[in-house]
């Protein structure tokens, strides 16, 4: 029987780190079908040394959050979108798709079983959910696995970038994370493996992270490696890059909708050239983990460009943040189908 009584952690200072919770979900794919094991207390996975996930990176993951509302209920934000995106990642890497219903019920089970660890309303912290699928089994040649594990674990988290709504600075990467016809649109480990070195170089120079440029000419902004990029133009338009090597962020598409429908702004997915940054009066990184993290300054080669301010969040970015988080935490009405309540009772 899972403990349902709230535990006490230092909710305000969680950061974004792994905290081992009591329960996680597992399912196995074998002989062409999924077999659901359900919840387990074992945080370790023992698999064959030849498993394709180890050598050839055959695996994909997702990231979403459970939000504690003022009334004690718990929200999932657009989990169907994460299910769909994982299915697309699976298609790209020749892995069996996890059905949407199984994906969402796994999330529900994990949140319910670990409900004592869902951060309280008002702390800004959330329960981060990490679904993933890996190719396993005896193998050595380059080919897709015959067997797979799908699992979901959870960990309570606070801010991803240390600033929260205080702007931080970013560096234009000298490396690419993905190619146009590569796996940029898939949430797969390889994209992240290739981002470790440029990420480290950015951290060493005091930046929050790097911003990747288009892999063809390195003239346009792509994204922030773990979050998408958006800007507010001088004439009040919400713009975000369009490129085949960007990961389609659920947060980004939600902001495109909210900017248009709730804030009455014009929006566009378009090219954002690094030699035309003066057109942008605000900029930010957006994603489940990053939420909305304002970008203060952006170092491109020798040029340091400040968007709104290095110390203060811009007014439109703040409005977007309030709209988005208001919906996620249940304080504002959500567009139809965006919120799924978790059933916390037996
Ligand atoms: C997960 C991810 C994002 C953010 O997507 P959300 O659905 O908003 O969480 C952005 N870029 C990359 C590379 C990602 O892996």
From TrEMBL:
<dbReference type="InterPro" id="IPR018300">
    <property type="entry name" value="Aminotrans_IV_CS"/>
</dbReference>
<dbReference type="InterPro" id="IPR001544">
    <property type="entry name" value="Aminotrans_IV"/>
</dbReference>
<dbReference type="GO" id="GO:0008483">
    <property type="term" value="F:transaminase activity"/>
</dbReference>
<comment type="similarity">
    <text>Belongs to the class-IV pyridoxal-phosphate-dependent aminotransferase family.</text>
</comment>
<keyword id="KW-0663">Pyridoxal phosphate</keyword>
<dbReference type="InterPro" id="IPR036038">
    <property type="entry name" value="Aminotransferase-like"/>
</dbReference>
<dbReference type="Pfam" id="PF01063">
    <property type="entry name" value="Aminotran_4"/>
</dbReference>
<keyword id="KW-0808">Transferase</keyword>
<protein>
    <recommendedName>
        <fullName>Branched-chain-amino-acid aminotransferase</fullName>
        <ecNumber>2.6.1.42</ecNumber>
    </recommendedName>
</protein>
<keyword id="KW-0032">Aminotransferase</keyword>
<dbReference type="InterPro" id="IPR043131">
    <property type="entry name" value="BCAT-like_N"/>
</dbReference>
<keyword id="KW-0028">Amino-acid biosynthesis</keyword>
<dbReference type="InterPro" id="IPR005786">
    <property type="entry name" value="B_amino_transII"/>
</dbReference>
<dbReference type="InterPro" id="IPR033939">
    <property type="entry name" value="BCAT_family"/>
</dbReference>
<dbReference type="InterPro" id="IPR043132">
    <property type="entry name" value="BCAT-like_C"/>
</dbReference>
<comment type="pathway">
    <text>Amino-acid biosynthesis; L-isoleucine biosynthesis; L-isoleucine from 2-oxobutanoate: step 4/4.</text>
</comment>
<keyword id="KW-0100">Branched-chain amino acid biosynthesis</keyword>
<comment type="pathway">
    <text>Amino-acid biosynthesis; L-leucine biosynthesis; L-leucine from 3-methyl-2-oxobutanoate: step 4/4.</text>
</comment>
């Amino acid at each position: 029987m899972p403990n349902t009584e709230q535990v006490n952690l230092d909710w305000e200072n969680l950061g974004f780190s792994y905290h081992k919770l009591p329960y996680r979900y597992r399912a196995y794919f074998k002989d062409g079908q999924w077999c659901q094991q359900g919840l387990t207390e074992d945080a370790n996975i023992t698999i064959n040394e030849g498993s394709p996930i180890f050598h050839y990176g055959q695996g994909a993951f997702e990231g979403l959050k459970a939000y504690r509302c003022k009334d004690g209920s718990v929200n999932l934000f657009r989990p169907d979108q994460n299910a769909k995106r994982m299915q697309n990642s699976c298609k790209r890497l020749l892995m069996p798709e996890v059905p949407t219903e199984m994906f969402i019920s796994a999330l529900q089970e994990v949140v319910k079983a670990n409900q004592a660890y869902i951060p309280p309303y008002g702390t800004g912290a959330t329960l981060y959910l990490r679904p993933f699928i890996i190719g396993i089994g005896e193998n050595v040649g380059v080919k897709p696995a015959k067997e797979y594990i799908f699992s979901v674990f959870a960990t309570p988290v606070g801010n991803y970038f240390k600033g929260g709504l205080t702007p931080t600075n970013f560096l234009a990467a000298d490396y690419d994370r993905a190619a146009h016809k590569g796996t940029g649109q898939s949430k797969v480990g390889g994209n992240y493996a290739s981002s470790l070195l440029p990420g480290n170089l950015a951290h060493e120079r005091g930046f929050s992270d790097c911003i990747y440029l288009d892999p063809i000419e390195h003239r346009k902004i792509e994204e922030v490696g773990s979050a998408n990029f958006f800007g507010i133009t001088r004439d009040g338009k919400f713009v975000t890059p369009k490129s085949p090597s960007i990961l389609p962020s659920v947060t980004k598409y939600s902001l495109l909708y909210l900017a248009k429908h709730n804030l009455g702004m014009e929006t566009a997915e378009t090219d954002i050239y690094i030699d035309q940054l003066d057109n942008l009066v605000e900029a930010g990184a957006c994603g489940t983990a990053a939420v909305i993290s304002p970008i203060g300054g952006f170092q491109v080669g020798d040029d340091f460009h400040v968007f709104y301010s290095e110390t203060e969040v811009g007014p439109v970015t703040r409005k977007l943040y309030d709209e988005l988080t208001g919906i996620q935490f249940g304080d504002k009405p959500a567009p139809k189908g965006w919120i799924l309540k978790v059933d916390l009772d037996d």
